[in-house]
Amino acid sequence: MILSGSIQAHNDSLLKDHVRRFDFLRENIPAAEDIVSKLIAFQVAIPSWALGTGGTRFGRFSGPGEPGTLEEKILDVALLHQLNRSSGAISLHIPWDIPDHPDSIRSLADKYGIRFDAVNSNTFQDQPGQAQSYKFGSLQHVDKAVRKQAIEHNIEVIRHGVALGSNTLTVWLADGSCFPGQLNFRRAFLNTLESLQEIYAALPADWKMLVEYKAYEPNFYSTTVGDWGQSHLLASKLGNKAYTLVDLGHHHPNTNIEQIVSLLLMEGKLGGFHFNDSKYGDDDLTVGSIKPYQLFLIFNELVEGMDARKMDHALELAWMIDASHNVKDPLEDLLQSVEAILLAYAQALLVDRQSLYHAQQENDVVKAQEILQDAFRTDCRPLLAEARLRSGGALHPLGIFRDMQLRRTLTEQRGIHTVATGL
Amino acid sequence: MILSGSIQAHNDSLLKDHVRRFDFLRENIPAAEDIVSKLIAFQVAIPSWALGTGGTRFGRFSGPGEPGTLEEKILDVALLHQLNRSSGAISLHIPWDIPDHPDSIRSLADKYGIRFDAVNSNTFQDQPGQAQSYKFGSLQHVDKAVRKQAIEHNIEVIRHGVALGSNTLTVWLADGSCFPGQLNFRRAFLNTLESLQEIYAALPADWKMLVEYKAYEPNFYSTTVGDWGQSHLLASKLGNKAYTLVDLGHHHPNTNIEQIVSLLLMEGKLGGFHFNDSKYGDDDLTVGSIKPYQLFLIFNELVEGMDARKMDHALELAWMIDASHNVKDPLEDLLQSVEAILLAYAQALLVDRQSLYHAQQENDVVKAQEILQDAFRTDCRPLLAEARLRSGGALHPLGIFRDMQLRRTLTEQRGIHTVATGL
Amino acid sequence: MILSGSIQAHNDSLLKDHVRRFDFLRENIPAAEDIVSKLIAFQVAIPSWALGTGGTRFGRFSGPGEPGTLEEKILDVALLHQLNRSSGAISLHIPWDIPDHPDSIRSLADKYGIRFDAVNSNTFQDQPGQAQSYKFGSLQHVDKAVRKQAIEHNIEVIRHGVALGSNTLTVWLADGSCFPGQLNFRRAFLNTLESLQEIYAALPADWKMLVEYKAYEPNFYSTTVGDWGQSHLLASKLGNKAYTLVDLGHHHPNTNIEQIVSLLLMEGKLGGFHFNDSKYGDDDLTVGSIKPYQLFLIFNELVEGMDARKMDHALELAWMIDASHNVKDPLEDLLQSVEAILLAYAQALLVDRQSLYHAQQENDVVKAQEILQDAFRTDCRPLLAEARLRSGGALHPLGIFRDMQLRRTLTEQRGIHTVATGL
Amino acid sequence: MILSGSIQAHNDSLLKDHVRRFDFLRENIPAAEDIVSKLIAFQVAIPSWALGTGGTRFGRFSGPGEPGTLEEKILDVALLHQLNRSSGAISLHIPWDIPDHPDSIRSLADKYGIRFDAVNSNTFQDQPGQAQSYKFGSLQHVDKAVRKQAIEHNIEVIRHGVALGSNTLTVWLADGSCFPGQLNFRRAFLNTLESLQEIYAALPADWKMLVEYKAYEPNFYSTTVGDWGQSHLLASKLGNKAYTLVDLGHHHPNTNIEQIVSLLLMEGKLGGFHFNDSKYGDDDLTVGSIKPYQLFLIFNELVEGMDARKMDHALELAWMIDASHNVKDPLEDLLQSVEAILLAYAQALLVDRQSLYHAQQENDVVKAQEILQDAFRTDCRPLLAEARLRSGGALHPLGIFRDMQLRRTLTEQRGIHTVATGL
C-alpha cells in the first residue's frame, strides 16, 4: 500500500494545531532544530516475529490479518515506516523467515526504504526433521554433535544475512538449566565460548556478532549467558567484532540497566538494544508502557556515552524492538513503541549536559535531578511530529492507521485466520 | 500394570539396609511410629496435566510414552500410587479431561485406589468453536455474555466432578490486564465476585470452592485475583464453602508464604495447596528442588495450625502438585515431588512443639532456630521408606521405576509421539 | 520568616514567561481552571522527622541548619508552605516531638496556616529509662507487660494529638521476626489485634486509626503487619474508624500498588498515604524521582476511586510525605516531593475518564494506554505554578529557596551542627 | 578463659551417643575420614564487628557483655575457636580496631591460635575530625582531595595489616548515588579504578586485594561496584593480586550466586567469601538460617571448582562471616553460622562427583538432582562433631556455651552496657 496521498490529507487536517504546538516548543527549546534532525535520522528495526500476535505458555489469542509470508511482513514494516518514517529496518529470524528468493525480497524492501538489520538464529526450538534436539541446550551442549548442528545453523543464518545485505548476527541462547546439578556451569560456559568462536570465525569482515544475555526463562535455574558480565566476558574473549546486546526485559528485579549501558559503552562493547517494557519479568510489553522514566534514563546514558565516544547515534548501535503483542494489534503496538523510543531519545537530547556536568562536579544532587526531570517533563511530542512531517510521515500515525482502517484492509487481503510465525 | 510382585522383590533386596537405617532413626526419634502412621495417611493428588511434558512460550520438547487418554492418565497415577502409596488421588482439568463414561472411569480409578480430587475449570484459553473469547478475561469480563459463558463452564465442571465423586472446584483465573488503563480494577473485581457468586450458588451442599490467586502471568500488568488478600476478600464475601488456595509459585519475589499459610489457617480460610518450586517466577519446578527449607517452614506452619484447629492432616485440606516437567520424565519428576512433600511433612512432624513454644515465650531466638533446624537436618528418609513398606509400596520408588524400565514399557504401549493435553 | 514580599518580587520576574506557558496549556486543556482549583485545595502533610538529614545503618552525613526544636520544625514547614502553599500540615512523631506547651505550638502553627495531621507513635525504638524493651516487638509481644506499655504509649500519643487538634493516629509497627521459629505468626497477629483494640477503644469519636503495613525491615524474616491483606484484616476487625495506610516503599518488588489502592477504596478502607519513591526497598527517596509513571497511575486510581465514592479529594484521605534525605537538603527535597505529588495529581485529573471508560468497555487497550499517556506526557507544570500564584506561593519555589539562600539563613540562626530528631 | 577442662567433661558426657551416630554415618559414607580431615583444616574468619549487637537504621537493641576493646574481641574469637576449633582467624576493621600495640595483640592472638585474616578499610562513614567527607563517595569522588584521603586510608590499613601478619586487603565501597543524574557512571568507575590502582601499587608482594561488590544500600539508585561483572572488570584491570569477593547478601532478588562463584573460579578471580543469609536484601542474618540449600549449592560449586584448579580448600580463599546480630547473642549466632558453613561444606564433599559428571554427560537431570539431594539430605552433623572432637573442640559448642553460662561470665567481666564498635 502506498499511503502518501492519505498521509498528506491527514497532515493537512492537523497542521494548524501542530504548528501552534511546535512553535510554542521551539520558543522554549533552543536546540529544537538539532533535535528534530537527529530524530529524523534515528531508525528502529522491527522484528519480523513481532508482526503477529504473541502468546504465553497458557495460550495465544490470535488477531486478524496477520502476515503469513515474509513478503507480507516486509509490507507490514513498510506500512509502519510510511506512517512514522522511523521504522526503516527489519530484523529477520531464521528459520521463521528464510527467504526463498533473497533478491526479490531485497528489492521489495528497497522499494520501501527498508534495510535488513541484525539476523537472528534460533536454537531454542526444535524444527521438524532436525537431527539433534536442543532440549538440553545448543552451543553449550555436552554433546559435540548438537553443538556442531547449532554452530552450522548460525553460520547458515549469516549466509542468509549476507544475501540480504545485513551485517550483524544476534545470538540469543536459551541455553541453561532447570535444576541444580543439571549442568556444570564452567563446562557449559566453555562449550558456549568454543561454539561462539567457531561462529565468529565465519563472520564476514564487516560483520558484528551481538551476544544477548538473559537472567532466566525458558530455563528456570541457570542461564548460560545470564547477565551482562557473562556476555561481556564472552565478547571480550571473542574479539573486536563481538558485542553485548541489552534487552530491557532480561534482568533481575530492580537492576539498574542504565548503569550497565554506560559501562558497556565505556568499554566499547555495547552492540545494540532490544526495546520493550515489563513489570515482572521478560513481559515483552509495549516500550514505555510501564517505566517510561527508566527508558529516558537509559537514553540519557546512551546519548552521553555515544557523544563521549563521538559515535553516530543513528548508525553505530543496533536499535530494535523486541516485544510480544498479546492483547493489542501488533502494528498499533509497534507504532506506540517507536513513539515511546523516540520520545525518550528526544528527552535525552534535551538534557542540558553542561549544567548536568557542573551539578555533578558540585554534588548538587537536587539540581542534577531538576535538570533530568525538566527534560523528561517537557512535552516533546511536537518535536516527533515535526520530524515525521519533514520526512514525509504522518503527524499522528496511530490516528491515521485507525481512521483508514488499515487493519481491516489487511484482513480483507489476508484473511482472519492467518497466523504469523513467532512465539 | 500390577506391580506388587516386582515391588516385593525390590523391597526384599533393600530390606536389610533399610532396617538398619530405620532402627537407627527410631532410636533417635521417640515419635517415629506416630510419624510413620501420619505419613501413610497423607495423600497428594496428581494433576492430570502434569503427566505429560510441559513447555514454555519458547517451545516444548516432548518425551515418549505420554498418556493420550484420560484412562492412560489414571493408569499413570495408578502406577505412581503403587510405587509410593501416597498418590491416591487425581485432579482433573476440564476440558482437557472430560470423561465420556464417568462410571467406567470411576471404576478404573477405584480399582487402583485412586479418588478424584478437586476439578479444575479452564477459562484462560479459547476452545475451538467457543462462542465468546477469553482474550480479555472471563469472570471479570466487561461483557456479560463472556462472563455467562465462563460461569456456565464452571458449573459444567462441577457436574463432571459430581459424576466422578469429587467434592471440590478449583477456580484459577488468568483474568487481569497487560497494560495500565486496560482495566478498571474495581469493576473487574466486582464482576469477578458476581460471577463467582453464581458459580457458588451451583455448588452441591458438601462441596468447596477454592479460589486460587497469582501475582502475575499470563497477564503482565495486573491480575484480578492477584494475592492472598484478594482471594481472601472474595472467599469471605462468598461464604463458608469458599476458601483460598495457595500455589507456591504465585507470589512476588521474597514473599513469606509460610506466614500467609498461618494466617489463612487462623481465619479458617485455607483450602488447599498447589505444590511446586521456583527460583524466579511461576517456574513450576519439582517440589523441593530449589528451596527445600521454605517447604519445611510451610509444613511447619501447616502442622502447627492444623493441630491448633484439631484438623485432620490428611483429609481437610486439598494437597496437590502443580508443576511442569520441561526437562524431566513426568513420572520421575512426580516421584521426586511427592518424596519432597512427605519429607518436609515428616520434618515438620519432628519439630518439638513444646520446646518451640517455650523458646518463643522466652524470645530465645537461637533455641527456636535450633529446634527447627534439628528437625530439618535429621535425615527422615527412612521414615518415608518405612511408611511405603508398610503400605505396600516400594522402598525406593524411583529406583524400581528405572530398574523395571517402566517408561520404556509405557512407550511401547503408547508410542513415542503421543502428546498429553496440558500446557 | 515572612517571605511574602520576596515571593512577590520573584513572581514578578517570572510572570511573563509563566503566563505564556499557562495560556498555551489552557488552550489545550478545557478543564484547566477546575484542575487549578483542585490543586490549590490539595495539601500534603510534612512529617516532622523529614526536616533533618536521614541516614542508613552505615552512617549519617548531617547537613547544616537542621531544626533542633519542635518550634523550628514548624517554622520549616511554614517556610515550605509559604513557598508552595501546598504543605499546610505537619505530622508529628512521639516521642521525638512532644510539645511542652501545646497551646503555644498550636498558635505558632495557626499563624502560618499549618494544621496538625496524623500523630505517629513509636514502638520500634527503646527510649532511655523505658521499663520494657521493644527488642522483640511491641503490640505483638509475648509478654503482656510489654504490650501494655506500648498500648499506653499509643494512648498517650492520642492525648498529644487531641491537644494539638489532630484527629488521626498512625500506627506503624516494626513488629515481626528475624528468624524462622522466632515467632508464632498466629499468636503475634492475635496479640497485635488485641492491643490495637485497646488503643482503638481510646480513640475519640471523630478520630481515625491508620494501620500501616510493611513487607520487611527492620525485621528480616516476617513482619506482623506485612501486607495490605493483613492491614485490611486488622482494620476490618477493629471497626469503622480503622483504615489501611499505604506507604509506597513498603512492598515486595514489582507489586502493583495502584491495584491495592483501588481495592482499598472500593472497600472504603483506604485511610491515607505515605509518599516516597524507591528502586530497591524502602529507600525513602524523593517522591517521583525513580518511578513517576507509577505515581501517576496511583493518582489515576485515587481520582477515579474517590470520585466513584464522591469523596472530597483534599479532605478525606491523609496525604503525607515519608521520605529520608540522605544526600539532599531536606527542605529542597520536600519541595521536589510536593511538586512531584501535585504533578501526578494534575496529570490524573487530566485523564479523559469518559473516553477511558469507553475504551475499557470495548477492550481497546491501545486507546486506553493512549488516554493515560496523553495525560502523563502533557507538561502540567504551568498548572501547578498557576495554583501557587493564585494562592500566594512562589512560581518557582526551589528557585527562590536557592536565590534567597534560605538554608544559609537557617544555618546562621541554628548553627551547623544541630541534628534533628529522626532516623 | 581456658576451657579445655570443661570441654573435656562436656565431651565425655556426650561421647557415647556421638560414637553411635558417627559409627552409623561412617558405615554409610566411605569417605567419612577424608571429610573429617578436611573439616578440621577448614577455618572461618570472624569479623571483629560481628562480636557486638548489630542494628538497623530504625534502632539498635544492645546486649550485655559486648567486647569493648580489641583485646576483648580477640578473646571472644578465642572462646569461639576453643569451642569449635574452626574459628581460628579474625578479620579487623579499621578504624574500629586500630591496634595500639600490634605486637602484644599479635601474641595474644597467637596464644589462642588465631591468625589475622583480611583487613578491612572504611570509607563509608566520616570519622570525627576527618578533613574530607565521604557523603558523596570516596574512591569514586569527583574531588581528587577526597579520593586521596580515601586512598591513604586504605594504605594505612595495609600497614596495620602488615604489622599483624595479615596478607589481604578487603575493599568494600558504599560509593554510588541515590538519584538519577547525581553521578556520571563512567567517570565514577574510572575514578574508582584509578584510586584502586594507587592502593594496589602499595600492596606488599605477597598480598591480595579483594574487591567486594554490592547491588544496593546504602546508596539507593546506583552502586559503583554493583555486581560481579563490575568487580571482575576492576580486578582484571588491576592485575594478578586483585580478586573479587562475594558476599551472599549483595545481590538482586533471585540471583544465581553459585553460577557466579563457578565462573569466577574458572577465571581464577574468586578471592573470598562473606557468609550470611537473607530473605529480602543485605539482611545479614545467621548463615544457613533462611536458604541452607543455596548455601550447599554454593559449596558444591566451590568444591568442584577448587578441585578442578587443584586448590587447597582451606588456604587459598578467604572465608569469612559477615553478619549482623540484631536479636541474638553474637557469640551464639557465630557458633550457629560456623556450624552451618561446615555443614554445607561437608555435604558438598559428600557429593558423588563421578556419578554427577556422568549424569550431566547424559543429561540425566533426575539423577543429577538425586545425587545432590542425597548429599544434602544426609545428616552430616556427626562428621562435624567428630572433627571438633579430634581437634580438641566441643561436641556441642552451643550446648556448652549455654551450660557454662559463658555470656554471664563475660558480662560480669565487662558490664552490661559495653557497646562494641561496628554497625
UniProtKB/TrEMBL annotation, chains A, B, C, D:
InterPro entries noted in UniProt: L-rhamnose_isomerase, Xyl_isomerase-like_sf
Regions that span the bilayer: none
Keyword Metal-binding annotated: yes
Molecular-function GO terms, alphabetical: isomerase activity; metal ion binding
Keywords: Isomerase, Manganese, Metal-binding
Matching PANTHER family: L-RHAMNOSE ISOMERASE (PTHR30268)
Name assigned to this protein: Sugar isomerase
Coiled coil residues, start to end: none
